[in-house]
Amino acid sequence: MAKFTKMANVLIFNICLMLILARVESCFIPSSLYVLVPQTIPTGYEITKVEVADCDTKSLRFTSKDPNFAIKPNGAVVALTSVPVGTRGRTFSVCAQDDRGPESEMEVHLVHSALQEREHQGQSYLKRSKRRWSPPPFNILENYPGPFPKDIEKIVSDSELNHQVYYTISGPGYDKHPVGVFNLDRKTGMLTVLKAVDREEFPSFTLTTKVFDQQTNQMTDDPLNIQIIVDDVNDNVPEFKDQLQFTVLEQSSPGTEVGKVNATDRDQANTLHAEIRYSLLNGLDLFAINSETGVITTVTNTLDREVKDKHMVIVQIKDMKGADNGLSRTGTATITLGDINDNPPTFTKTSYEVSVKENENEKLILRIPVEDKDLINSPNWISKFVITKGNENGNFRIDTDPNTNEGLLYISKPLDHEQAKNVKLEIMARNEAELKNAKAQWQSIPVDVTVTDVDEGPEFTAPTIRFIVKENTPNGTLIGSYTAVDPETKSSAGIKYYKAADPASWISVDRNTGELRVANVIDRESPFVQNGIYNITMKAVDTSSKTGTGTVIIQVEDVNDNKPLLPTGELVMCEKDGSVMVVAEDKDEIPLSHPFTFTLMEDSKEKWSLQTLNGTTAILKSKKELPMGIYTVGIDVKDLQGFGDVQTLTVRICECRNGACLIKDRSATLGGLAILAMLLPLALLLLLCILLAFFCVTKREGKEVDSIGDVGGNLLTSNTEGRGDEVDSSLINVPPFGMGQAIKGSVKHSMANPGWQGIKSSSTLGAHSTHENWAYKSGVDMQEMSSGQYNNQYGAQYEGQFGSEFFSNSMGFDSRQLVQDSALLHTWQTNGRYLQQKLVYLGTEEDGRYADDIIHSYGFEGLGSTAGSVGCCSDYGDNDNLDFLNTLGPKFKTLADVCTKT
């Protein structure tokens, strides 16, 4: 029993010491207390005494939440009745409060000690039960200022009765983070704290205690876990969690929520240290805040954004439920007022006057500025203008300038000074958003518009006029008149009328009276008529050349001037079907067209029958099987008015597949391409004949010219193509090919040399030498011929191309005669040798003029000549007057050009 008393005294002493050394606060008591009591507490038993700090002793009051206990004014807790503690202990609360602040509450935990007396070998001793070795949690105060070390509690094991023991501890706060907070006396078991502890960082510690025998170092009891709880002190100031930015609409009703202030406190939750209260330090005439929830609300409906759009309110947060000893912090909340449309746009002037010319269109005539106090560029500020009066005819429109918010008044339809010299408008200014101020209204202003007179052109009596005219109306028929007047004088004097548009030229107009007459046949079926309507544009011109326009609408009435027509092409009737549909068309309109009446002619009734299908179609059938071929059927077709005549329908009966003839038995006719194909050979033949005729006409004829001793300026005899004298072939020495050279010489003696009777004289006055002309046309080089390079290959080639007669006439000798006279001249190679021999002989002449003319090729025989003399005759000088040669014609002039030396 002495052991129990000692432990109880130590516990009470430590509790009192903690209360004394605790941080001094306004009427502060510990949050919890553990007291060792008997298993049954007797009546009047003083359990403990509550120690307080910083309390007003005069107004201090203690209360117990358990009616079995009472607290005396000095803080002593006394049992009023006998109270059993039970195996699990008992807990109740004690409260202390003075007049300076809220009450403080402490939980008192009652723990009983059960000692059991046992006998062991005639001796008795006290042994701590298992519960005794498991003490309740120890408490330390956070941020204890010292001095250190400070005893917390002494650990005692029942094994001390039988052993010399020592104690050890391990765990956070001793040999684990945070190291060095606690210490244990090995011998006495006293647990001490060595430094201050922050509860917000380490709210509790759990240490493991072991007890050992000093001699054997063997554990004498089970290991014990000791929990050390750090009691909270109010050492943390509340903090704001969120930005203090709020928005509320202006003119909101009282009680409208503005926003919620959120705050937090690091001190222990559910204690006074973390019980935060909210308050406003200014702006209380406009806003209020709920002290427990932090919700800010309005207290008036007079908030006006246009007066002040932002309000700065200081908010205070304080723990300890707002008590004077609580810790506090302040922050500035910004409350922005949202805009509502409580201000209508207002005009800067009370009225407007504007002048506009008549006939003007789409012209800006007035800018109307307005002012609005609401938020710029918001629907509450953007203006909309409405013309509420004076615009019944739609002459005006008003828009909003998006940049300046001004009203823009336009002329949308021309005004007429003669009809209205003044227009009074009323314009209202609104907003895109509706007004939310019950006292405000939209405003309007008057606008006086003066229409000034302009000298304008004549105006027709109506913009459009309509006349009904039957088609085919005779020319000259009067349709009507369309006149105009001067808008100012209302007179038609001096106005002339013209057509501006008459697509079909059907109408003529009288310039002075405006009378309209038929000028050409009006046809309702014309493409110029659309839906029976034909339009003419008229123009009126006054004396000052001002014009006005109008439209004449002619409604063309239909007459029965078109007969119903049957198809002009063939209708195919299949042999097995024996029927075909006959469709008639009439360009006239109902009732001048269908339904049609189809009547079969008498000569066709023997083979055919006709049955009406509908108003435009009849079915033609064969009464009996007819052979395939083409048939004509006479049908009388009349319209509804009986207008029509007999028409012939062509029907082809054939064998069909899928509704089409397999073979068309049409009469054989030739198309354009076939005729062209037939005529083309004839045309080619005709062209060939023309070419042959041209060749024969242009062929040089051989005419004999008598040789006269002294020509006396006359032309020399040349180009004699008659048969030559017989030549003795033995007199001709034929040189081998390649040996001779073409040497310039004279041809004077060639004509008289009897050894060359088979060779005709070449013309010295022709455009080319005859054989040169052939050589030029055929592509044979005369130099090659004269040098012996012309062989029988060339001869055979060109003989086959042009014929031997051509060579005879062109070269000046008859090849066939040579063949007949001599066996040595049977090939063209021999002829070439004769030609070479002749050229060599000509080259021996002293006068080379003739040889020069023979050997060289000359230019094309053009027309005209500037020479004045002909060929070699110019060598004789100007002794004889040869001007007469210029009058001999173009052929002689060309000859002279060829022979003239350059």
Describe the SSE topology.
Blueprint: H1 2-21, E1 32-37, E2 40-41, E3 46-49, E4 61-64, E5 69-71, E6 76-79, E7 83-84, E8 90-97, E9 104-112, E10 116-120, E11 123-127, E12 138-141, E13 150-154, E14 165-170, E15 182-184, E16 190-193, E17 204-213, E18 224-231, E19 239-240, E20 245-249, E21 257-260, E22 263-264, E23 277-280, E24 287-289, E25 295-298, E26 310-318, E27 328-338, E28 346-347, E29 352-357, E30 363-368, E31 370-371, E32 383-389, E33 396-400, E34 407-411, E35 422-431, E36 443-452, E37 459-460, E38 464-470, E39 478-481, E40 484-485, E41 496-501, E42 507-509, E43 515-518, E44 533-541, E45 547-557, E46 570-574, E47 579-583, E48 597-600, E49 608-612, E50 617-622, E51 629-638, E52 644-654, E53 656-657, E54 660-661, H2 672-698, H3 770-778, H4 782-786, H5 792-802, H6 804-811, H7 815-821, H8 828-842, H9 849-855, H10 890-899
